[in-house]
Amino acid sequence: MPDVLLTLTARSDGTPPATDLGHLLHKHPDRVQRFEQSTGVLHVLYPQADERTCTVALLLEVDPVALVRGRDGKDTSFTLAQHVNDRPYVASSLLAVAMGRVLRSAMAGRCASRPALVDHVWDLEVRLPAVPATGGSAQVDRLFAPLGWDVTATAPPLDPQVPAWGDAPHVDLVLRGRHRVADALSHLYVLLPALDGAKHYWVGPDEVDKLVRVAGGWLADHPAREEIARRSLAHQRSLAADALARLAEVDETVPVDDLLDEPADGTTPDDPAPAPPLARTRQDAVVAVLREVGARTVVDLGCGEGALVARLLDEGFDRVLGTDVSVRALRAARRRLHLDDLPERVRARVDLVQSSVTYTDARVAGFDAAVLMEVVEHVDPPRLPALARAVLGGAAPATLVLTTPNAEHNVRYPTLAAGTVRHHDHRFEWTRAELAAWAHDVARTYGYDVELRPVGDDDPDVGPPTQMAVFRRTTTDPQEDR
Questions:
Q1: Residue 236: helix, strand or coil by DSSP?
Q2: pLDDT at position 24
């Protein structure tokens, strides 16, 4: 039976022991486990497991006949290519699907037995002896290197006996880097099918949801994000465009270039410039308000991976503080800002701290302005009074700038099912009327005036994609109205 192989090796100095990889994967190093798949059988085993080095191997035995049979067991294809191909031998969407089913909890970053392990950064090595790569080693490097992997991709000759035939359309791939296990698995889960470019199952709108859910933390920041989206979604341009637009909602770190509407043969000098991406438009709107009110010191509440903090630093604000409840996000922000390498005069202007927007924190008080950019929708509705109390009552900035999705605009996302939100972590999404009602209520309670503004193209029927509320304090003493 043909075999597809992947090995993942974790190395450690002993703290934690490398064998804790088994806890993260929910697969015990002392057992060989077998999982039936629709196209074959996946075996999970550990060739090596000690405190310093632990290697897990995924061996997928592919049934070539099962690949060309429908669910009723009847052969639905008569072309020779369906029977004679490389699918049973290479790491492709077949392996990615098997990983998603068997390593689901690990990929989601869940580990009940050792919760602290989820955020541990390991020295990892991934080996895939046969990966489809029609673009050769350069294509593999283009996809994996920006994620922090040291890539070694070797293309063997198509036939050693006939050098003139050139290299095979596959590479022997080795990846080395320091990553969380969940991140490494998500990279493989998304990029293997992207390299494959020929998923073995139907690609529909639900694949957009899956891509945003799995890769939302890193794909929007990837320089090859358009290529990855297109290839992951079977070159369906409408799906890829929607995925990139929704990723821009999830990840505020990088504007998503609106390139998917350009003609297949490229643009000409006479083509109109593409509309600015929403993430950039949102940042521009926030900065414009901060300039308008004359703010010099700003706290970015729920700063995520630090995109707005970096922008504010570049814009020359005197003092910028970024806060987030997620330690992982703050680590990413620290890397983005190169915080440890900044000149002292710049470093003195910026800081990052862990804090929750629903708890009063003296460290976030005393700023000219506070920003809640795409944060409020991640808070459970019963906690919204606590957020208002902590931000408008406790921190009491002279100005608060809040942005949030406009739920009415969701109908303009073609793959977003009716009644659903743009991202799985959104606890709700307000209509324009709902934001107005909440904003005016909390403004009255805490001594503020509030102005509502559109962000992005203001659709005459459903409004803008993002809505903004600008709160200005009207009381001298933040406590006098309470």
A1: coil
A2: 92
Residues 77/183, Cβ–Cβ less than 8 Å: no
Q: Evaluate if residue 261 carries a pLDDT over 50.
A: no
Residue 90 makes CB contacts below 8 A (sequence gap 6+) with 4, 130, 131, 132, 170, 196
Which candidate, 222, 265, 263, 266, places its Cα nearest to that of 244? 222
CB atoms within 10 A of CB 449: 12
| Tokens coding 339 | 């915080």
Q: What is the pLDDT of residue 321?
A: 97
Strands (E), 383-431: 399-405
Condensed to tens digits (0 to 9), the pLDDT of residues 211-257 reads 877 887 788 778 888 888 888 887 677 777 777 777 766 544 333 33
pLDDT (average), residues 296-303: 96
Task: Output the CA–CA distances (angstroms, integers) from residue 173 to 36, 48, 123, 149, 155, in the order listed.
Answer: 26, 20, 17, 11, 9
Q: Which burial class, exposed, middle or buried, applies to 13 when counting CB atoms under 10 A from its CB (0-12, 13-18, 19+)?
A: exposed
Strands 150-154 and 53-62: unpaired
- Determine the average pLDDT of the residues in 17-46: 88
Tell me the mean pLDDT in the region 47-69. Answer: 79
**Burial annotation 96-125 (CB, 10 A radius, 16+ → b, else e):** bbbbeebbeebbebebeeeeebbebebebb
- Amino acid of residue 367: F
The 10s digit of each residue's pLDDT in 60-79 is: 887 655 555 544 334 444 45
Angle at 207 between CA 201 and CA 212, to 5 degrees: 145
| Phi/psi at 457 (5° precision) | -60, 125
Looking up tokens 């390299």 gives 195
Q: From CA 243, how far away is CA 213, in angstroms rounded?
A: 10
Which pLDDT score is estimated for 265?
Answer: 32
**Angle at CA of residue 377, ends 180 and 442, nearest 5°:** 140
Q: What is the pLDDT of residue 276?
A: 61
88 neighbors 4 (Cβ within 8 angstroms): yes
The structural domains of the chain, ordered by start, are 3-201 (3.30.1610.20), 278-473 (3.40.50.150)
185 is written with which tokens?
């698995």
pLDDT score recorded for residue 199? 53
Q: Which helix (H) or strand (E) holds 311?
A: helix 307-314
Q: What are phi and psi of 409, to 5 degrees?
A: -75, -10
